[in-house]
Amino acid sequence: MEEQQYILRKPETFNLKDIFECGQCFRWNEQKDGSYTGIWKENVVNVKKEGEDYIFSGICKKGNLEEEIQKYFDLDRNYENLKKKLSQKDEYMKKSIQYGKGIRILNQDLWETIISFIISANNNIPRIKGIIERLSKAYGKKIEWKEKTYYTFPTPNELKDVTVKDYRALGLGFRDIRLYETTKMILDGKVNLKELEENPNTMEVRKKLLTLSGVGPKVADCILLFSDLKRLEVFPIDVWVRRVMNDLYIQNEDETKVNKKQIETIAKEKFGNLAGLAQQYLFYWRREA
DNA sequence: GTCCAGGGAATCA
DNA sequence: TGATTCCATGGA
């Protein structure tokens, strides 16, 4: 398998740490030299900053590396304009955008995003990453590159004979049955991923996602935002987002008692159809700082 | 030992 | 509809 290379020259909005550690993805890891190596679809790629350019190199099993990168890293979208719009909302937004100014929202595979965020429920990011790696190693396809072995995220079909017990053995905990049931629903065609990708109606897609086992409001919104469905208007609310929204705009004494609808209303009024992007700046800012 | 993590589902009012 | 409780697991 031939290694391919692509150089992204002086991108305006692009920072490796911001993109890979803002909580949207789980399969990119920092290397000793500060570059990141990750895997998506059947691509194993390393990205390294070189001056103001970014060098992508790796294995691209299907298609062309440049095209895969264009799509995955959302390079056709003008983030400078979006950041400018959001920065005008208030000083908090301005500050959080300044902190995470290199964020781009990836276009991740829908199926992988569904399973990954089912695993994310009441879980922490290091452990989520570990579970996804073990799942991929057990059931994905092997790809060798530079004397290291990588594993693709298993397809629905590759999981068709996996039992609840098998999942439990990977450390999934109470999420085992949810993975099992959701995989079954998709294999049985009760939820058709292609139809979801072709449906422009966000609320219809959301409603369908909510029928999947382990997919509630927060996970559904993460799927809508972080997968190639790419709905920038949804606003996933987890403990961190609730925390930061309460601190900034609500100031309830007990943040755990803040009404979700109140947060949603504020988000919609303030950030409109860019609420999801705003959410990501706020999440990253609050969680890191 | 206790608390917490990118919550969801079941249960009960 | 809305609030409570339980659910595995591993690290701090």
**pLDDT averaged over residues:** 97
Number of helices: 14
Strand order of the largest sheet: 1-5-4-3-2
Low-confidence runs of at least 5 consecutive residues: none
Level-2 CATH architecture of the largest domain: Orthogonal Bundle
CATH superfamily of the largest domain: Hypothetical protein, domain 2
The amount of beta strand, in percent, is 5-15%
Biggest beta sheet attributes: 5 strands, antiparallel
CATH class of the largest domain: Mainly Alpha
Our count of domains comes out at 3
* N-end to C-end Cα span: 42 Å
Shape: globular
Q: Tell me the Rg in angstroms.
A: 19 Å
| Proportion of residues in helical segments | 40-55%
Question: How is this structure best described in words?
Answer:
This protein is an alpha+beta fold and 289 residues long. It has three domains: 72 residues, TATA-Binding Protein, CATH 3.30.310.260; 117 residues, Orthogonal Bundle (Endonuclease III, domain 1); 50 residues, Endonuclease Iii, domain 2 (Orthogonal Bundle), CATH 1.10.1670. Helices cover 47% and strands 13% of the residues. It has 14 helices and seven strands. A five-stranded antiparallel sheet has the order 1-5-4-3-2. The longest helix is centred in the middle third of the chain and has 15 residues. It is globular, with a radius of gyration of 19 Å. The structure holds a DNA duplex (13 and 12 nucleotides).
